Amino acid sequence: MWRPTGQSPQQELSPPPTDSSEEGYRLTPAVARRLARRNRRRTSPTPDLVTSLVRPPSPDPFYINSQYQPQPRHDGQASLGRADFELMSRGRAADLGRRSGPQRPPHPSSLDIPQKYGGACIFDLYSLVYVDEPDPNLLCPICHDPLVDPVTTPCDHTFCYRCIRRCIDSSPSGTACPIDREPLTWPECFSAARLIRTQLNGLVVKCPNYIRGCKKQAMREDIETHATSECRYREYTCPNTSCDKKLHDKPKDDDCHHREIPCSYCDASIMETERDLHLLTCSKTKTRCVSCWQLVSRNQLEAHLEFDCEGVEVGCPYKDLGCPARVLRAHAHPHGLGCAFHPDTATGIVIRTQRDLIQSFGEQLQEMRERQDDAARRIEELAMLAGRRGGDDVVIHDKRTMQDLDAGFEEIHQNLTQLEARQSMWTMNQVMPIREEVTELRNNINMVRINVNWLLNRSRAEEGRMRAANSSGSATTIRRDSAGEAAPMMMERRRSSGTDVDQPRL
């Protein structure tokens, strides 16, 4: 939240507008992203063309790089969050060869860990007080505070990591962008451009201990180090006068908390003052899975990513039959029902028959190889015996037997190759008519659609002509009625005019 220096809490409710002379030199997030994408460098010389066409790339590594190391944190709990993120990243995308969601590990405060699992001792970047008014372009559209761990959607909107994850997790009608309601899934999102993160890290904030008297003001990327290890106001004096130890948090009572207590989860003996720090590393507590945003026990996190996590991309259930698709585990079952390699489809039946046939030939080939090895071993034994006895006829006979076996093996190999070629041609002949029938059905559907449109237009035209005819008929009837009423008047006028003519003249 923004809070200008030297103002009272009443004045904080109405922050004054900015009059910075550098407003014209600041880049908008859209321009910054375009500039970063123009200058980005990928870690692989062969990018995923399909993915790059579907989703705009980001300056982060486009592929999972084993040498990629996130920026180190300065506090102990941050390193714990990074370790969890690396474990979840391995289970989520290490076997994919491409991106699956933002690649930069979020700050532990972005994982929204509850206080009962140690979230109270995590340095909160979302509650910092900013010295100057931030650029409006750097504010999150959801929380209206400066972005923290910014994440960009495919529709080019940027949100805080925690805000967009909460929005996706709590959306009752499916995932959609909070701004334009475009369809949105977490694997399609990516980390914001480096230029945006640099501008955010350069914002000047107050030390979280400014209420206790700390006057330190530093950039946001350095304030965590100061507040956790350098600030002299970071620790509190123990209420017990006989205890000279310090407390990390403000004491809530007058008792001394420097005593050993058992952990409520793992029964380990810990200091009461270090309870929250222990909960961040306890194997029995829960942490946030960055793939599905569920709270999972730390000792079950690896198994969760391997078998249960619905946010991890996995292969098709019929990948053994040749399907190359990779989908989220939550979508694996619907994809398998409509997969072209399903055993109940025409293509699946052909592929299954081919696989069974190839497997049988492979078994026969393996059996022939074993027989060949046995024959070669016997030939060697006979050759050794013949060498000892000096019999050349046995050696010649064994050589002929070996040549016959080689010829038979070569013939079987050629037959297997020809059979595979015939099977491939047969498969193409079976699939092509199906494709032609589908094309013909589509053409028939288009013709039916054209005929229906023509009939609708014709019925509308007939209806228009009938309405026009009805309106013209009513007009003719009205004219006839008016003409019938005028005829007697004309007759009377003629009689009067005849009388005037027959009147004798004086």
UniProtKB/TrEMBL annotation:
SUPFAM superfamilies reported in the protein's UniProt record: RING/U-box (SSF57850), TRAF domain-like (SSF49599)
Span list, region Disordered: 1-78, 465-506
TRAF-type domain mapped to chain residues: 205-243, 278-323
Zn-finger (TRAF-type) residues: 205-243, 278-323
Domain spans labelled RING-type: 140-181
Molecular-function annotations in GO: zinc ion binding
InterPro entries for this protein: Znf_C3HC4_RING-type, Znf_RING, Znf_RING/FYVE/PHD, Znf_RING_CS, Znf_TRAF
Residue stretches of biased makeup (Basic and acidic residues): 491-506
4Fe-4S as UniProt keyword: no
Biased composition (Polar residues): 1-13
Coiled-coil blocks: 358-422
Protein name per the record: RING-type domain-containing protein
Organism the protein comes from: Stachybotrys chartarum (strain CBS 109288 / IBT 7711) (Toxic black mold)
